Amino acid sequence: MATTISKIPKLSMHTVRGGFSPLTPDEVNKLEYFFHRGGVRIAKVSPEIIVKYGSDVRVKEADTIDFIRENTQIPVPKIHAVYTHGPFDRPEFDAIDEYDTYIFMDYIEGETLEKMWPNFDEKDKVGIMDELKGHLEELRNMEGTYVGSLENGPVLDQILEYQPNKGPFTSVTEFHETLIDAYAKVYKGDVKPYLRGMLSTREHTIVFTHADFRPANIMVKDGHVVGIIDWEMSGWYPEWWEFAKAFFIWQFQNDWGSRFLEITPQYYCEQSAHGQMMQCLL
């Protein structure tokens, strides 16, 4: 008769800085969270500190925030501590990981651009978009040699979440072919030549990409951008990825989308192909 070995959760510290003393998992679980989606929760530890935690939170997001903070002028929260807790017995479909990750970081004072955009006048909107253009240019100026997350990690975007091959990929072509193959298995039509054509209208460099660039992830205060948040899917992607992801999510509820077109290169063919693939692969 097979013996079941119970998993004993343990805490493994990844990062702790400046004498910061992070709360334990039990202490965090007693906090009242103000955000909850899937395996992600966010709670205030103090007026200045929040903790983002759960089974769908990754250490890689904290590493990415550190990377952006060290290599750009883009406003991101300061990371104070990161640890994992586990393993836990979970159904395979219930979580990305059998470990929970806890990221303690600065709380950014302000409101989301999504909330504030309808209240802005023309001068405010022009100023905000000009600042965002500069931040996007900083990202695009960082070129990579592979498609994937930091430190030769896998692609973290949802499009490959249920696929066996998540990379990293040595070239844009290899990444494109992986997407096309995954889509063709679900669609079961002779669609590969069409998608290859849509994705090869030009040569693409690999650049650092936020991959979820939308008003809900942009913090503003007093008419200025004070934070870019939610770097969980970020990494090195083909240069068209930021455009495609932004317009896959955005539904043109207001003039944000039209103004976004003015501050970033456009990749309409690639975005169309991406949208078609996302509908089948998610």
Oligomer: single chain
The poorly predicted ranges are none
Strand residue content = 15-25%
- Compressed to H and E, one letter per element, the order equals EHEEEHEEEHHHHEEEEHHH
Spatial order of the strands in the main sheet?
A: 1-5-6-4-3-2
- Secondary structure: number of strands: 11
What is the CATH class designation of the largest domain?
A: Alpha Beta
Number of domains: 2
Number of helices: 9
Organism: Dactylellina haptotyla (strain CBS 200.50)
Domain Aminoglycoside phosphotransferase: 60-274
Pfam families: APH
Protein name: Aminoglycoside phosphotransferase domain-containing protein
Q: What topology emerges from the helices and strands here?
A:
Elements: E1 10-16, H1 25-29, E2 33-37, E3 40-44, E4 49-54, H2 59-71, E5 79-86, E6 100-106, E7 111-112, H3 113-116, H4 122-140, H5 172-187, H6 192-199, E8 206-209, E9 218-221, E10 224-228, E11 235-238, H7 241-249, H8 256-261, H9 268-281
Antiparallel strand pairs: 1-5, 2-3, 3-4, 4-6, 5-6, 7-9, 8-11, 9-10
Helix pairs in contact: 5-6, 5-9, 7-9
Domain Aminoglycoside phosphotransferase: 60-274
Pfam families: APH
Protein name: Aminoglycoside phosphotransferase domain-containing protein
